[in-house]
Design a protein that fits this description.
Two copies of one chain form a homodimer. By secondary structure, chain A is α/β, with parallel strands linked by helices. The first copy, chain A, is built from eleven helices and 18 strands. Chain A has a seven-stranded mixed sheet with strand order 10-18-13-17-14-15-16. In chain A, strands 3-11-8-7-6 form a five-stranded mixed sheet, with helices on both faces. Chain A has a four-stranded mixed sheet with strand order 1-2-4-5, sandwiched between helices. In chain A, strand 4 (about 75-80), helix 2 and strand 5 form a beta-alpha-beta unit. In chain A, helix 5 (about 205-215) runs parallel beside helix 6. The longest helix of chain A has 24 residues, at about 250-275. The interface between A and B is large, with 63 and 63 residues.
Chain lengths: ~400, ~400
Amino acid sequence: VAVGLGPLPDLPPIEGVKLASVAAGVRARGRVDLGLIACDAGTRCAAVFTRNAFCAAPVVIARRHLAADTPRALLVNSGNANAGNGAEGEEDALTTCHALAALIDCPVEAVLPYSTGVIGERLPADRITDALPGAVAELSADGWHGLARAIMTTDTAPKGSTRTILLSSGATVRINGVAKGSGMIRPDMATMLAFLATDAAVEQDALDAALRHGVSRSFNRITVDGDTSTNDACTLLATGRARGARIAGDSGADYEAFRDALADVLTELAVAVIRDAEGATKFITLDVTGAATAADALRAGYAVAESPLVKTALFASDPNWGRILAAIGRAGVSGLVAERVVIEINGVRIASAGARDPSYSEERGRAAMAPADIHLHIDLGMGAAAERIWTSDLGYEYVRINAEYRS
Amino acid sequence: VAVGLGPLPDLPPIEGVKLASVAAGVRARGRVDLGLIACDAGTRCAAVFTRNAFCAAPVVIARRHLAADTPRALLVNSGNANAGNGAEGEEDALTTCHALAALIDCPVEAVLPYSTGVIGERLPADRITDALPGAVAELSADGWHGLARAIMTTDTAPKGSTRTILLSSGATVRINGVAKGSGMIRPDMATMLAFLATDAAVEQDALDAALRHGVSRSFNRITVDGDTSTNDACTLLATGRARGARIAGDSGADYEAFRDALADVLTELAVAVIRDAEGATKFITLDVTGAATAADALRAGYAVAESPLVKTALFASDPNWGRILAAIGRAGVSGLVAERVVIEINGVRIASAGARDPSYSEERGRAAMAPADIHLHIDLGMGAAAERIWTSDLGYEYVRINAEYRS
């Protein structure tokens, strides 16, 4: 069960975008496992993909298509990652793109494929192409919830977020987003797929800049187990169909409002992914402050957030500042002075001056660790740089899920 | 229960070294938790310590003493790490050194302190000093097994190794070693203490070089969970009491024989630590070959060895080459070509050309994964560099031990 994850919010229509989700039988019969997003001509697209050297076939094809044309449709399946399948994987991904392009009458390069699920099993392209006519027939502006469910794998709940912004012209624009992901998650993306759309008319450079800005503060600041996947992708469509909603460049109040709202949507999705992290019983917001540089803050933060010893202590609701100090100590922060480091958990100071804080007691520590939502604050006492990371704990369920699930 | 760890071998006396182990009640009554190694005047010493920025009080004191004098005694307790205790921690460590120095009539700088166990609880120095007269009275050349047991914490079995070498003079010399450690283990040392002694007369430079050489191939090539401790230390004494056993410099056949035998002892101890890794059910020898550089081989190796997803797959006896490929893909090996990577498990080729190997079948994969000893071979197909790493799997027991034990 996800830690404090709320229900899927209403996700209103985005003009110029239609969605469908159907059961194609990719892995299991009857499960809705195929999602389709169609967008009007003239829609702009920004996307970021996994940096894993072994990227899956759909990532290879989507990157290539995006460089050649602007998309008219995104096609995503769960149940099979189409990764580690060599040349046949690319052929299969292309087969599904060709079939969809023929149905909606667009160039094959205007279709971007996405897959998530088991690695190393051949994609049943025929089942997907068989299901496509039905999916196209079902396209509707109200399909966001269906898409959020169709892309789930080990997720226990669908994830979505939306924002409405008032521009200086008086126009309102919307941003919707859905995401999936619950493990293999860390910076440089995750086994994570996110699909976002806005009806704002954002110029290409501004759209790219806003997505990079938002992802760097959201999906690139979460970690479950330090692993990254072969399939990660975050794609943003801007249809430009809202009236008076032109965002001309990557500056100005309208751009900032759009960028910040987009970052909010991305952050809500990223936080939802961590709240639903595989086997998680705790949701941890980790603030590292007082670092000499942002890089140092992230070094210390990830060393703590990815330490199995810290994560098992969090699972045990054990305010084990010794393990936290030890993780900071090996993080490679140059010039670290043990005596300056301060650690607080949910407002209770547990360590200072390289030792247990004088005010600390086991009772206060246990009380601070009791909630499912944990705020862990580490001040390095060296400078003014600060970074925030979100992570989860490591318990029996993580082992069970990952020992039983073939990903 | 340790994976394939044999019984403690006979550890014959090393001339010039006497040992004792007693129950001081550091943490629990009755448990033998205090070890003492006394050596003759003129003994040389080489040592390496944790690189964690938060090193424990005994590491601070041992480093300082070693720089000031040559040791006459090593004093080690389990049950309490004396880490994270600020200035009081150093005072307590010094108190025990002073007490022992008075008993055996040597400068306080000739005593090196070591501690392992719970972090952040004050060392009960009085219990240790109370137990010291009894320990000194018990000093004997036959105390190696007792020492191996006295230093255990979450270890399930004592760990020791010995070698005898024939030098060109016709003299035989011995090297004994004992170690403890079962978690928080990775390069740059581990929560690992190792004590070694030889009766060879090795010059200081040669002794230092041989220890660095051996540690780089043993304790710095093992990983359980990527965590390092505040207390790690590996100390080698050379008494020079064997006749005709002078090893003059760090070259020549005698030096090489000594260096290689020492590396063997260190490797046996390091492998024993991994076989006894917390909650381990598998022992994995990971060979990365075909790398462009040794650094690339280690990058790929540690990314795989420390991936929780790979480790849970190993626990499940699941030949999950997809997770292994994904870990290699994020390791930061520049110029990696997916099509050249080959993965074999216990001789069965499971992946090649970025995909499942054509010869692979689930049955062969399952059979290869069945034994407790797993040889994982990754060839990157890029060059001639190769490195070997040892690691363990990640299962329920790891979580249980680390969620229940306050380290």
